[in-house]
Amino acid sequence: MSRKRILQGVATAGVLSFLAGFALLAADAPNATADRTAASPSPSSSSSPSTTTGAAGGSTTSGTAAAATTTTAAADTTTTAAPPSTTTAPAPTTTGTAAVPPPTTTTTRPAPTVAGPGTVQLLELPSGDADGKTREVWVYRPAVADSATLPVVYFLHGYPGGDLDVNGINLAGRLDQQFLAGAAPFVVAVPNGWSDVKNDTEWADSVDGQVRVETFIVSTAIPAVEGANRRDAAHRAIAGFSMGGYGSANLAEHHPDLFGQLVSIAGYYHIDDLSGMGAGSPAWEDAYSPDRHVGALAHTRTLLIVAAAESDPLIEGEGARFAALQRSAGQAPAFIVAPGNHSWAMVAGQVPAMVGFLDRGWG
Fold first, then answer.
1. DSSP state of 304
2. Is the dihedral of CA 82, 83, 87, 90 positive or negative?
3. 111 falls in which pLDDT band (50, 70, 90)?
4. Is the dihedral of CA 140, 144, 145, 151 positive or negative?
5. Alpha-helical regions (H) of 155-239
6. pTM as predicted
7. Cis status, amide bond into 339, omega within 30 of 0
8. Domains (ranges, CATH) in the chain?
9. Which H helix or E strand runs over 28?
10. Distance CA 166, CA 164 (A)
11. C-alpha closest to that of 260 among 298, 220, 287, 218
């Protein structure tokens, strides 16, 4: 049984314990206030000492990404589960792309040289979910001029988690190190995939239309991050960790016209729908089963990274299985067995490998 399912029961028991002791805590600390932390993600949450937040639909102000941000790994992002929601299942919204065109190619040119550390900004954008809340996007921009040929990577976090998980591994500082050392710079955008309507969104659109995370990325986040300098597939990639590895594979298959490269880190490639995003709909489950549609990745450069000490049965062996499916379809995914377990610390150690892989594939 995966950790997502085991700790679903632990979370429920914790609520009862909390209610039992709340009166005593209130008596001891009547004037206490709760600090905002990343442990309870929300689509509208935002906090970072090195960032400033832009208003929804408006302009944003960039702050310098501090290289001194802690490199301590954040908590495992696939360890708990929200209670599943039950919904009536109408026909799912179609998310697939009819054809699988090759990425647009452009003339190779020397990568720009960064002038110094990059900057981080937080975008606050309408989520499109039924509760009307906003969804945050963490954006790192290297110290070079923006253009349609400066690549963008959309990185999806795991469950439970949020966009600010990347601060726990000082992702901005690690990217600065790579780019100052000569790697081709790129923008990184990390959307918050949490929803208060259905917590375990699986980076999908729910069959009942109440949660629209995939649509948010494609129709809201990409235009907001790229602005007037829209990228082609040769200058855009999708990546993710854990549930984000699953989500990135789905989005790469659904939108090969948008994403020319895929990096899936410790992902799984089958349905694990704890919050009822698909409500048992066979059509939804087929659409969100990346192991059934590997042919859609025929023109997508793919890197699969697995943890050597992976112990979650939801994920263990999944990377090798998906790589075998791709090879059977005539594809040649890159494959890395990374030291460590299912953690952000393992992800941090693979930043150079990810940057190097992407560097070789930009148009």
1. E
2. positive
3. confident
4. negative
5. 171-180, 213-215, 222-226
6. 0.75
7. no
8. 3-28+46-86+110-359 (3.40.50.1820)
9. helix 3-28
10. 5
11. 298
